[in-house]
Amino acid sequence: MHAPSDLTPEARRVLDQIEYHPTTHNLGWHDLVVMLKEVATVDESHAGAKVVVHLANQRLELTRPEGTPVSEQTLLELRRIFKDAGFM
What we know:
Layout: H1 9-20, H2 29-39, E1 41-45, E2 50-55, E3 58-63, H3 72-84
Antiparallel strand pairs: 1-2, 2-3
Helix pairs in contact: 1-2
């Protein structure tokens, strides 16, 4: 499985950022959630503060960070599920 070819340019940029930048610290929560909705099933709760991502046979729970950028740990977890799903 590869990432969908019909991603919006913004979603492709976010996915590329996760794949190619080992310590990206400038990825915003909103941009991340928008991209995830294009490639996976996303369930939001607590006014969008928590999301559960379902991709292939993977499931990942994420919590909106206090600051703007998404944490390095979150990026590593996302990279793992994308890799396991064959996106990377």
